[in-house]
Amino acid sequence: MTSPVGAAAVTAVPGALPAVPLPAAAPLPAASDVAFERFVRLVRRQLGVPVALVSLVTVDEQLFPGAAGLPEPWATTRRTPLSHSFCQHVVTSREPLVVEDAREHPLVRDNLAIPDLNVIAYAGMPLVDVDGRVIGSLCAIDGQPRRWSDEDLAVLVDLADACSSELQLRAMRERAGQAAALAAEQWRRTEQLLEERSSVAETLQRAMLTHLPESDHLEVAARYLAAHARDQVGGDWYDAFLTPDGATVVAIGDTSGHDISAAADMGQLRTLLRGYAVDRDEPPSRTMRRLDQAMATLSIQTLATVVLARIEQDAEDAARGLRRLRWTNAGHPAPVLLHADGSVEVLRTPPELLVGVDPDCRRTDHVVPLPPGSTLLLHSDGLIEQRATRRSIDAGTALLVERLTGQAHLPLEALIDRVLDALPDGREDDVVVLAVRMHPEGGPRPV
Q: In angstroms, rounded to a whole number, what is the distance separating the alpha carbons of residues 326 and 314?
């Protein structure tokens, strides 16, 4: 929130911004909270006011997890109806509200807080939640007219920013806990499968395979080949699903290690990433950053390479018969694009850190058009790197490009077969291939 320069800069003007709906529910109960009580004590001490409140506003009342100086019964109930609320105007306007004499202010002069709570002078600063919504106010109240100084308002702004940070931190912890619970439930279901199957490795891998989405204009196919080495459990995985906003999300990853622990880590990361990617319409880089931060918060001690991508189409793209690939790459082999004319493009980007290294690392989005007839191929390093034969990733990528060039006419499953036919016997790593083909708008799907 921008710090005010003076009282005039923060006095709310009715109609200055479009009103926004009040929140349906408060993030905290109407009960004393130690952290928010500290904020109201600071407000009283620094501004020399008899009443200070941390007020969270809902559609029909305001709640006070922090309150000092309220008369009874409000001090005990810690809530008032909106008929007694100045703070509701801070929420609906998303702006500070500064009132020198409420009895003369056109916005609040009929508010019942004046006769019932002796609210004459009021200064309230917005409290912002983790999603950027204004949900309440940190306010100072006096029972007599008062001209609020620039210093008063600057102090109140700083305290409101700190109070907002506390609210946001709690919300992030709660969401992290929910993500952890989701991952734990996914692992519980996997453990149940383990009890029913004789092969731990085979069962873990099968549990993590995704049911591929069906779309009128996209064809999606995938293949997973386990390593030939006995008792090896890979951390490779893929994912593909449709989002509420109409995008298709595809992902591929490789968790470090080749044991049960690696498979468990892979399950957690896949579940977290899927939950975050479907949670909101946002660029892949932002979703990947949330995964970085969740791994640090949940103490997931592993490293992984990941490509996360969204296949999107806005109105302009639709008019041109195109889609767009928007992706971010955390240290994984580059995606490959097979054009309709048979040419092949390796979508190389500047290298970025694996997930699990730095929760605050920078993530970048990249965008390319996806014309009709083009095919996107994501793969794990097991497809292109052969340690036993000392074949490098660059040499393996060149061989993959050679196998794909001129093959745009092949059905998608046949194209994947051609790619996998080049693999040697006795491979030491798992191989994952995920392919997406773009069909013309309104055109027939291939049989």
A: 12
For residue 306, give the 3-state DSSP assignment.
strand
pTM assigned to the model: 0.55
Using one digit for the tens of pLDDT, what is the confidence trace for 36-50?
999 999 999 999 999
| 187 alpha carbon, distance to own chain's centre | 22
Range list of H helices, 108-149: 113-117
Buried-exposed string 35-54: b where 16+ CB fall within 10 A, e elsewhere: ebbbbbebbbebbebebbbb
Query: What is the chain's alpha carbon radius of gyration, rounded to the nearest angstrom?
Result: 28
Which residues share a beta bridge with 341?
Answer: none
pLDDT in tens, 186-229: 888 776 765 555 455 555 555 666 678 877 789 999 998 876 55
User: E strand or H helix at 163, and its extent?
Assistant: helix 150-196
Angle, in degrees to the nearest 10, between helices 150-196 and 260-279: 130
Rounded Cα distance between 21 and 92, Å, is 6
In angstroms, the Cα distances linking 439 to 230, 371, 432 are: 40, 8, 23
CB atoms within 10 A of CB 391: 14
Q: Which residues contact 55 (CB under 8 A, 6 or more apart)?
A: 62, 63, 64, 85, 87, 124, 136, 137, 138, 139
Query: How far, in Å, CA of 145 to CA of 394, rounded?
Result: 75
In whole angstroms, what is the distance from residue 192 CA to residue 54 CA? 47
Cα distance between residue 435 and residue 441, in whole Å? 19
pLDDT at 354: 95
CA distance 392 to 22: 58
The distance between the two most distant Cα atoms of the chain, rounded to a whole number of Å, is 87
Q: Where would I find the H helices in 72-149?
A: 74-77, 87-93, 113-117
